[in-house]
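Progress report, Aim 2. The chain analyzed during this reporting quarter is listed below.
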Amino acid sequence: MAVTVAIKFEGKKIRIGGSGPMSFNTSQMLQLGSFANKTVIARTRSGIGSDDAAFPPLSTKTSAIRVNGKFLRQHAGYAAWKSAHGLAPIRDMWGTGAQNGHMLDNSTVRYADDTTVKIAFTARMARIKALSNERRTPFYSFSEMDQKKIIDFAAKLWSSNVKKVIAAFTGRRAA
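Predicted structure tokens for the chain:
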């Protein structure tokens, strides 16, 4: 008899199929969701999109910016502006945090049960920023590399369940 667990990635959700004593519990799904969220954030912060390719470079065009309700002229492109403010001059979805905090810090596990975990932005302003950035440069879904890392982590979680079941059947303590 073969025992299998199916992992399905649906947008910002991870679904796990399987039942019985070796299925995941809500606590393990929370762990999986937290790991998945950290994986996506780490990839994004390093300037890699959800297609596992580098984000396009930041604009070098001069553009108007709004500060304290007044429009000012930005003397250089966004890459130069980020450098001047101590940030990496790459598209990494990370800013100064001055307005409503950092968007990526707002990504959390929003729902988990025994079969599903959902990751989303909690604050309205972060959701608006994320949607705008996602349209410009997709970043907030699971890339192929993310999926491999998440599956490896899920395998570790599942192996602890297998050990518990084996221990229950053999009467030995789980290692």
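Residues 57-90 form one domain. Strands lie at 6-10, 13-17, 64-67, 70-73, 107-112, 116-121. These observations will guide the mutagenesis work planned for the next reporting period.
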